[in-house]
Each structure stands twice: as C-alpha cells, then as structure tokens.
Amino acid sequence: MSQEVHISSLVVHSTPARLPGVEQAIARIPGARVYGSSPMGKLVVTLDADSSQDMLAKVSAIQLTDGVLSAALVYQFADSEEAMNEMVQEEASNGH
Description:
single chain; alpha+beta; Alpha-Beta Plaits; 3 helices; 4 strands
C-alpha cells in the first residue's frame, strides 16, 4: 500500500514583535517551511505530512504558537505517493 502525501500552505499572522520567534517555532515543526515574511507580521508557510491527522496537528501547533494571531489554510492537497510520482513522471515525459 502506498503512503499518503499531504501538502498544505498557510498564511500566518503574527504580532510584529514576536515574528522572529514565530518563524523559529514554525521552522522546528517537521515538514514545515517558512517561505517568506513581512515586517507587518505575515508569513507564508508550507506543510508536508503523512496523514490528515498529522497535518491537522501541525496546523494546530502553529495556531497555538505564542505570538500567532491567526493561521489560515490557503491550499491543501492529498494523494498517494505512488500517484504523485506518476504525475511527476508524466510531466517529465511531456517536457514540462
């Protein structure tokens, strides 16, 4: 049986004074990556997880991080690892 792959993106809003600590806390979450931030306290975050429960736990951990005002899910995708690998192979063979 193929493993599931879950990918999500979030916009996280932090108090500006706590932005560095929030970025560090998110970076310590396995599968989390901060792609950018603004001085106003907004961050763009992606998450990878092996299950929907793991994804929800990671989103919850971000929401509960000291200094986080909100964490809004922007995008979520889930599929089997096998299906995702097939899509990548098809794209590569089509020259994309």
